[in-house]
Automatic annotation (TrEMBL):
Pfam name, any one: Cys_Met_Meta_PP
Spans traversing the lipid bilayer: none
Protein name according to UniProt: Cystathionine beta-lyase
Gene3D superfamilies recorded: Aspartate Aminotransferase, domain 1, Type I PLP-dependent aspartate aminotransferase-like (Major domain)
Keyword DNA damage: no
Chemical reaction(s) catalysed: L,L-cystathionine + H2O = L-homocysteine + pyruvate + NH4(+)
InterPro entries recorded: Cys/Met-Metab_PyrdxlP-dep_enz, Cys_b_lyase_bac, PyrdxlP-dep_Trfase, PyrdxlP-dep_Trfase_major, PyrdxlP-dep_Trfase_small
Protein family membership: Belongs to the trans-sulfuration enzymes family.
Required cofactor names: pyridoxal 5'-phosphate
Length: 400
C-alpha cells in the first residue's frame, strides 16, 4: 500500500533489489508537489515563528550548517544503504576521515591506523593528531586478531581500510573490530573502494563508516563530498562533532551525489567487470610481476574478499617489472605513452586514470620488491580499447 508521502511503499522498497532501491531512496516526490528530484535548498538563515521556538530550536531546520531538505535526502539514502543510525555530509573524502577522528580522540589517547591507509589520512595523523597530543601507531593490514598485542589502555580508535590504498591488502574487519571493542576502542573504516553496495562495514562490527562520495556515488569527476555514517552507539558523538566543527556539505553537491546514486549500481557493475577483465589480462603479460586485485584468485587476500565482499569495484594496481635504479623512469615512460588513460588523482568517474604509486611513507607494509606500482582506475570505456592503450605503455617502457 502507498500513500502521498511514500508513493513507492516502504515494504516494497525494503525487499527490492539494489538498483530499485538506489532509484528511490531519499526520494519523496509528494513532499515537493510531485517533482521526482528533491529541490536544491540554499540556506544559511532559517526563520522561527517566535522567540521561544528560536531559543529551544523547536523545529526541524534551524540553520544551514545543520542540514537542509537536500542534504537530508542524501543522508536518508546513505543511511538506508549503510544500515546506520545517522549520516553527516562533509565537503570532501578527507574531511570524512578527519571529523570522526576528532570526534573520538583527545590529548593523551592512542590511535591504531592501518599502514596501507589513504595517504592524506596518514598526513593528518602525523601532522595534526600528534600535535594535538594523540599517539599514533601504524599496524600491518594483515594482522587480524593479532591486533590484540598492539592495544593499550588508552587506545581509543582503530582505523581500518579494506582494500588498502594502492596495494589493496585485505583486512579481517570482524576480527579487528571484536578485539577493539573488548578494549573499549571505536572502529572506523574507509570503505570508499567497495561502497555500501559491496560491503557494509557496520554489519561487520565497524562503528563509523567513511566514504569519499567524490568517487562512485558522484561518478562524474566533478564533485567533492564525503559521507560519514555511524551506528547508534556513536551517532550522537559524530553528529555533535560535525556541528561543533562547523563542517557541512553543500546542498548543490549533495544534490549531485544523490543524482549519481541513481546509476551507481549499474556503473559500479560495469567498472568492476571491466577492471577484472583487464586485471586477468595483465596477469598474462611478461612485463607484469604481479596484479594487486582482491578478486583475483592469485591475490593473497582473495579468501577474505570472497568471504566478506559482494563485489569488486574498478580500481586496482599492478607491479611493472623494473630494476631498482630504473623504476621511476620505466613508470614515467609507461604513463606518458598512454592516450586513453588520463594521469590524474582520484577515481570513480567515467574516465580511466593511471597513477605511479609512491609507497615511501609506509612503515610496515612496504612496496613489492619486483618493480614499481602503477594504479589503474578503469572507467566506462571498452575493455579492448583500454588494453590497446596499455600496450602502448608497455612498449614505451620496454625501450628503457
Amino acid at each position: 500500500m502507498t500513500d502521498d508521502k511514500d508513493p513507492v511503499g516502504k515494504d516494497a522498497l525494503a525487499s527490492a533489489g539494489m538498483n530499485t532501491r538506489l532509484a528511490h531512496l531519499g526520494n519523496h516526490p509528494f513532499d515537493f508537489h510531485g517533482f521526482v528530484n528533491p529541490p536544491v535548498v540554499h540556506a544559511s538563515t532559517v526563520l522561527f515563528p517566535n522567540a521561544a521556538a528560536m531559543e529551544t530550536r523547536a523545529q526541524k531546520y534551524t540553520y544551514g550548517t545543520r542540514g537542509t531538505p537536500t542534504t537530508d535526502a542524501l543522508c536518508e539514502a546513505i543511511d538506508a544503504l549503510e544500515g546506520s543510525a545517522g549520516t553527516i555530509v562533509v565537503p570532501s573524502g578527507l574531511a570524512a576521515v578527519t571529523v570522526p577522528f576528532l570526534a573520538v580522540l583527545s590529548a593523551g589517547d592512542h590511535a591504531l591506523i592501518v599502514d596501507s591507509v589513504y595517504g592524506p589520512t596518514r598526513h593528518f595523523c602525523n601532522a595534526m593528531l600528534t600535535r594535538l597530543g594523540v599517539t599514533v601507531d601504524y599496524y600491518d593490514p594483515e594482522i587480524g586478531a593479532g591486533i590484540e598485542s598492539l592495544m593499550r589502555p588508552n587506545t581509543r580508535l582503530v582505523h581500518t581500510e579494506a582494500p588498502g590504498s594502492n596495494t589493496f591488502e585485505m583486512q579481517d574487519i570482524r576480527a579487528i573490530a571484536d578485539v577493539a571493542h573488548r578494549h573499549g576502542a571505536v572502529v572506523t573504516m574507509d570503505n570508499t573502494w567497495a561502497t555500501p553496495l559491496y560491503f557494509r562495514p557496520l554489519d561487520h562490527g565497524v562503528d563509523i563508516s567513511i566514504h569519499a562520495a567524490t568517487k562512485y556515488p558522484a561518478g562524474h569527476s566533478d564533485i567533492l563530498l564525503g559521507t560519514v555514517s555511524a551506528n547508534a552507539a556513536q551517532w550522537e558523538r559524530l553528529h555533535e562533532a560535525s556541528i561543533t566543527l562547523g563542517i557541512c556539505g553543500s546542498p548543490d553537491d549533495s544534490y549531485q551525489v544523490l543524482r549519481g546514486l541513481r546509476t551507481m549500481g549499474v556503473r559500479l557493475a560495469h567498472h568492476g567487470e571491466s577492471a577484472l577483465a583487464i586485471a586477468r589480462w595483465l596477469e598474462t603479460r611478461e612485463e607484469v610481476a604481479a596484479v594487486l586485485h582482491p578478486a583475483l584468485e592469485s591475490f593473497p587476500g582473495h579468501a577474505l574478499w570472497k568471504r566478506d565482499f559482494k563485489g569488486a569495484s574498478g580500481v586496482f594496481s599492478f607491479v611493472l617489472k623494473a630494476e631498482p635504479g630504473a623504476r621511476k623512469a620505466k613508470a614515467y615512460a609507461f604513463l606518458d605513452a598512454l592516450r586513453l588513460f588520463g594521469l590524474g588523482w582520484s577515481w570513480g568517474g567515467y574516465e580511466s586514470l593511471a597513477v605511479h604509486v609512491n609507497l615511501n611513507d609506509r612503515v610496515i607494509a612496504k612496496g613489492p620488491a619486483e618493480g614499481t606500482v602503477i594504479r589503474l582506475q578503469i572507467g566506462l570505456e571498452n575493455v579492448a580499447d583500454l588494453q590497446r592503450d596499455l600496450e602502448l605503455g608497455f612498449a614505451a617502457a620496454s625501450l628503457l
